[in-house]
Amino acid sequence: MNLYEHHISTKSAQQMTKVTNMVREDIKKSGIMEGIVVVFSPHTTAGFTINENADPDVVHDMLLGFEEVFPTEAPFYRHAEGNSHAHMKTTVTGPSQTLILHDGEILFGIWQDLYFCEFDGPRNRTFFVKIMEG
């Protein structure tokens, strides 16, 4: 079976964690050289994005931008748990990403990596990787 489960512990209320190498290890284990890789977060307050890996200020700026658009505290939020901002940020990033697998490698641009986006931490999180041959 080419379904892999990962557990990560986030340390901040909001953070982006590079998980590309975890997915690359799954690809190596699967032995699949051509196909599709889907990463999925079963959480409503955490998701995935593909973005720049060269300048750490990009991650910093993205988190600040998300906070500007969807502030942690807002007088109009009604959700009792107090994490409406995290649900909105996850909706923007999405709970999953689909990656192309070619010659045993993820087809990324030169500066791209896969990030797990935590918007309601710190928490213990799970995500899944499904590798399909094709």
Automatic annotation (TrEMBL):
Pfam families, sorted: YjbQ
Q: Where is the signal peptide?
A: none
Where are the membrane-spanning stretches? none
**Family from the record:** Belongs to the UPF0047 family.
Protein name, entry field: Secondary thiamine-phosphate synthase enzyme
Q: Which organism is it from?
A: Faecalicatena orotica
From the broadest rank down, the organism's phylogenetic lineage runs: Bacteria, Bacillati, Bacillota, Clostridia, Lachnospirales
